Structure formats: structure tokens, C-alpha cells
Amino acid sequence: MSAATWKTQAAQDSEADGSGGRPRATARERWREQVRFYLRALSYFRPDLPLVVLLLVIIAANTGLGLLMAWPMAVLVDSVLSNSLQQGFIYRLFLAPLPESRLGQIIGLAVIGLLMKATQDLLTMARTVVNNRVNYHGLMRVRCDLYRKLQALHLSYHRAQPQGDAIFRLSYDTYGCQAILGVFISTFIAVFSLVFILWTLSSRSVTLTLVALSIAPPLMTANVLFGRRLERRTLEAREVESEYTTTVQRSMSSVGLVQAFCREQDEFQQFHGTIRRNIEAWWRLNWQEMFYWLTVGTIFGVGGAAVFGYGGYLVWHNLFVEPGAGGLTVGDLMIFTSYLGLLWDPLCKITGIGPNIQGGVAGARRVFEVLDRESVITDKPGAVRLPVQPRVLELHDVSFAYGDDKPVLQGVSVRIEPGRMVAFVGSSGVGKSTVLNLLPRFYDPTGGRLTLDGHDMRDIRLQDLRRHLALVLQDSVLLPTTIAENIAYARPDASFEEIREAAELAGAAEFIEALPEGYQSALTEGSMNLSGGQRQRIAVARALLTQAPIIVLDEPTSALDAHHEHLITESLRKLKGRRTIVLVSHRISAVTDCDMIYYMDRGRIAEQGTHEELLAQGGLYRSMAERQLQVDRFHREWRTMPQENFDLPAMLRRELRA
Q: 260 and 406 in one domain?
């Protein structure tokens, strides 16, 4: 979802029209939805619940120790260096283990302060270790869930979404659940700290404590107002950041194309526009954050001045107006001023939980947006298991359309016996590749059905179905690893002899063994260190190495020269009778040995038969074959003609007349 789309959706959600628009959710429904959302985010840390409890105990102990750090100085001022001995519980607690002499008490308080500081540092280290362990485990679970979902999602999703968006969600948005846990833990500790601080301060002066708490209402109001704005700005910034990642990924993957057509300046302008939108979105978010903290700082400043002024008055009154009346002491005022920041920090965390959590919420929402998408192609409940073996493949009156578009296939019916070699041919856009995409259930037909031995493919376990098929796509995908590992991708346990045999069958062994490192040669990202034909032959070898009884090839010879096209054709001919072979091709020379050829036109099977039968019919297939024969003859004559007799215009005119 782009930032503009998000804004539009937000505007629609905020409108309360009674006609056709989505009704506004009640406050209770929104609250329940929020609770479900937070529980879902926190569920990723449930396996580490004992560690979370341990973390809370460590943080509570560390926080409590931090709250006591101001007391040695207060005890020193009010009891050790003063003529009047304070009788409070905390005073007695600190003085109990110390000697009677004042010098001994001074040294003892210094030692106690040192021990408290050392213990606090050890607790901080323990907190960091446990916190990191919990966070990393939760992050791993979120990323694994998201990665599995992205793998399972329908191909239409991946073709509609840029790769950079998926990379951003996996790399950055997955930190959202971690951030939500952090805010909840800090809020829990803030409540604990606030209770302890209020109990301590109220025991010294109730009125001064109420003055310190007077900032709570304006602080809460500021957090509510800014929280909504920060949520919108944070989500917008993340969307634009995802767009930036996508732009970078696309630019780096198409550098060759950009340089070939001298589009560097155009690409830079597009990048510049994206980075400008990115910066503007983050700048708008930063402005909101700056105004927020300015408002909070002003509230804290006013509260601090009130506590300082009123507290100073109470100390003055106790020391000079009514001495010894049991009022506020200098030590008490020191505790108050030390606890001001400690008081307002948890107060700010409690009232500001909304703004503080928005960064995590925005990331988690983008993760859940993907996790909540339905995988269109899934196993039915009770899907049947189907052991891998040769089977009859049938298409029964199959129709298909992409979305609401015009149907690409209409009433296609085909029966393919085990061991047969069949081909779907025709011009571009007639539905050949769509047939290929239906076989492994990349899509399901919108009409009719496909079966294996009479079992509807939608009733078969997806894994079992796809193990029956080995695919060679037109745009062969190779991984940035060795050639041997690419060939053995579907059979990692294959021996080197099996890998080499598959490469020989695919016509790839010759060029592979000519490389310095042979089958251990590493491919670059996008396998740019191989030609298109070499990539295609490795992909064919990968399919031949599998145990799949059905091999499906989409234009297997499109990137090959005549010699290697002949090698591939010979390899497929040798597999006849042993594997079922389904070819999708526009090259007549690649399908002449097929047991059955289906000529497709406008999404239907217009003609079918063997190569000789279709030529004898004198229909569309014959016309296509004659055109290709003329082109092939023209190419042969062009290559063999002596240079001095070469007359391209005359050759073209002759072929056009033919």
C-alpha cells in the first residue's frame, strides 16, 4: 500500500456516511481490535515467557536500586551531618549496619553507595543479555513466519508487488513486534517505579507530591493529540522508505539496461524524486516529534519550577519560620529534586504509551498485512497424498482468466498418456504459457479441471502434485552458487555422475567443462557471467536430473543457436517413453517429433495431430511452419553466401515474394 493509498483509506475510514461506506467502528470495537493486535504481536515472545519474567525481575530490581541511589546523600545531610536525627524507615535502614561514629557513618555511606552502583551495573549487564536474547528469538520467529508466507503467496501477489517491498518488510518492519514488547515492558516498569516514587514522596510531603503530579493531565492530553498524528506520519514514512528500497533494488538490477540505452540521467531523476519524497516524509515525522517533545519539555519545565518554588518555600518555613516542627528538610528537598526526573519519566511513559509505540505498530501492521493475506493456492482439508509415479495428465474443458479480464483459455481439453511427448504451439498471447502455469497450480482454472489419474489437482497435496513436475521456464532462474549446485537444486543428494549425465543430455557439459573450475564454477548474481543459452541449458539439465515423471518446458530452445537447439531436441527425443514431456514453443523445429501437437489460437485448441498430420491439413499450423521455413532458409543463405555476392535488399524482396 502506497502512502497516497493509505491516506485515501484513512480519509474513507474517518468519514461517517450512512450510504455504502464502511460504518465507523465503535470505541469498544476499536479497543478490542487494538487488544487483539497487541496480543498477536506479543505472542511471538510466548516461548520465551520464563526469560521475559526474569527480565522483568531484573529490571524491577535495577529500577528499585536506582531509586535508592539518592538516599545515601539525604541520610548524610539529614542524619550524619545534622544535629537532629531523622527517624524514617529508610534512614534507619541505611544507618543500621553502620558504626556509631560520624566518621564511620560517612565512610559506611560511601561504601554503600559504591556497592549499590556496582550492583546496578551488574544488573544492567544482565538485563542487556536477557533482553537481547528475548528480542532476537522473537525477531527470528516473526521473520520466519513472514518468509514462509511470502513463499506461499500466490504468484499474482509477487508479480504485483515490487521485490524491494518484501525486502523492507523482512528487514525492517519485522522489528515492530520487538518494539511493541519493549514499550510494554518499559510501561510495566514505569508503573512499578511510579508507585514506589509516589509512596516515598508522599511520605515526605503530600502537598508537594500533588504539585509534582499536577502535570499529569496536560501531559496525557499532549500524548493523545500527538499520538494520532505520529501514527499517521510513522506509517507514511515507512511506506515511502519501502518505495525507496524498491527503487534502489530495481536500479541496481537493471544497470546494464540503463547504460545500454543511455538512461542514466532519467534513472537518477527518478531516484532523486524518490529520495526527496523519502526525506520529506521523515522530515514531517521529525517535525511532529520535535513539537511533541517541545510540548512535553514545557510541561515538565513548568512542573519543575512549581516543585522547586513550593518545595523551597516549605524548607524555608521549616528552618526559619517554625523550626523543628517536623516539616520538609533539606534532605527531603534533595530527594524530591532527584526524583523529579525519575517521577516524570515513568509518568511520561505511561501517558505517552501511544506515541512511543507507534513506530512498532506501523512495522507490525505491515507484517500482519502480508501474513493475513490468503494464499489463493492452498491444500484443501483432507487433500490426498499421491506417490510420485507416471500418471495420465488431463485437462477437462479448462478455462482461465486473469482477474476480470477477458478469458485467456476457453474450453481446452487434452489427454496426455504417460511417456508421451506433446507440444502446445501458436503465436504469442494465445494461452500457451497459461496452460503451463496451470499444471503446477501456480493458478487454478476458473472453469473446468485438471486431473492426474482422475484426481482433481485441487484435491491433491500441493507438494505431491509439484513433485510430479519438473519445470524449465523461459526466463530461467539460476542461483548465485556453483553450477553443480544449480543443476542439483531439486535433488541435492544427486551424485556428480548424475549431474554430469544431466548436463550432457541438456547439451551443457561441453561449455561447463571448458570453464576453469568446471562444475564448481560459481555464478554471479543473476548469472550474468553466462550467456542466455548457457543459462537455459543449465535449467534444462536441472529438470532432467529430477525424478519427476512429467517434464514441462516453456520455450526450451528460444535462447539457443541451431546446434544447441538440435542437442536439446535430441535429448528430449531420447526421453520419449521414459518421461512425459510437455513442450510450449513457437519453434516448429522443436516439436516435429512430438506424439501430439496442439495448435492454439485465441485461447482454444484450433488444430491437433502429429507434425505430418497437421501439415497435411493445410491449416494454421502449416502456415506457421512455412513462414518459419522461409526465415530459416533466409538465415542459412545469408550465412553461407560469399561476401562479394551478398545483396540483402534483393534477398528480402525474394523472400517477401515467396
A: no
What's 172's domain CATH number?
Answer: 1.20.1560.10
Considering its fold, how many domains does the chain have in total? Answer: 2
Q: Which residues have CB under 8 Å from 294's CB, separation 6+?
A: none
- 3 state DSSP class of 21: coil
Residue 24 has a pLDDT of: 57
**Integer CA distances (angstroms), 556 to 121, 563, 569, in order:** 66, 14, 9
Does 558 fall in a domain? yes
Residues 361, 367, 371, 374, CA torsion sign: positive
Is residue 12 assigned to a domain? no
Q: Which residue has the cell 487434452?
A: 414
Mark whether 163 and 200 lie in a shared domain.
yes
50 found inside a domain: yes
CA–CA separation, 30 and 14 (whole Å): 13
At position 1, the amino acid (one-letter code) is M
627 or 42: which leads in pLDDT: 42
Q: Based on the fold, state whether residues 333 and 449 are members of the same structural domain.
A: no
pLDDT in tens, 394-421: 999 999 988 777 889 999 999 999 999 9
pLDDT at 449: 93
Q: What cell was used for 528?
A: 550474468
Identify whether the C-beta of residue 500 lies closer than 8 Å to the C-beta of residue 519. Answer: yes
Distances in Å between the alpha carbon of 94 and those of 64, 99, 115, 180, 202? 15, 11, 13, 38, 20
Please measure the distance between the N-terminal and C-terminal CA atoms of the chain and give it in whole angstroms.
55
- pTM for the model stands at 0.65
Dist. CA 316–CA 293, nearest whole Å? 34
Q: Tell me: the pLDDT tens digits for 251-261? A: 776 776 777 76
Confidence of residue 279 (pLDDT cuts 50, 70, 90): confident
- Using alpha carbons, select from 614, 542, 556 the residue that is nearest to residue 587: 556
Distance, CA of 453 to CA of 462 (rounded, Å): 15
pLDDT at 16: 38
110 and 117 in contact (C-beta within 8 Å)? no
For residue 14, name the pLDDT band (cuts at 50, 70, 90).
very low
Q: Are residues 363 and 399 in the same domain?
A: no
| 596 φ/ψ angles, rounded to the nearest 5 degrees | -150, 135
- Report the alpha-carbon distance of residue 608 to residue 362 in Å, rounded: 56
Q: Is residue 439 domain-shared with residue 320, that is, in the same domain?
A: no
155 lies in the same domain as 194 = yes
pLDDT at 450: 94
pLDDT in tens, 446-492: 999 999 999 999 999 988 998 999 888 877 788 888 999 999 988 88
Q: Exposed/middle/buried for 469, CB within 10 Å: 0-12, 13-18, 19+? A: buried
Host domain of residue 188: 39-371
The sign one gets for the Cα dihedral 633, 638, 642, 648 is: positive
Q: Residue 201 and residue 333: Cα distance in Å, rounded? A: 10
C-alpha cell at 559: 535462447
Tell me: do 149 and 50 sit in the same domain.
yes
Residues 360 and 435 reside in one and the same domain = no
Last residue of a domain, one of 336, 371, 406: 371
For 139-178, how does the pLDDT look when each residue is reduced to its tens digit (9 = 90+)? 999 999 999 888 888 777 777 777 778 888 888 889 899 9
CATH number of the domain residue 560 falls in: 3.40.50.300
Specify the DSSP class assigned to residue 76: I
**Looking at residue 341, what is its pLDDT?**
66
Within-domain flag for 500: no
- Write out the DSSP string of 196-237: HHHHHHHHH-HHHHHHHHTTHHHHHHHHHHHHHHHHHHHHHH
pLDDT tens string 349-386: 776 676 667 778 888 998 998 898 877 677 888 889 99
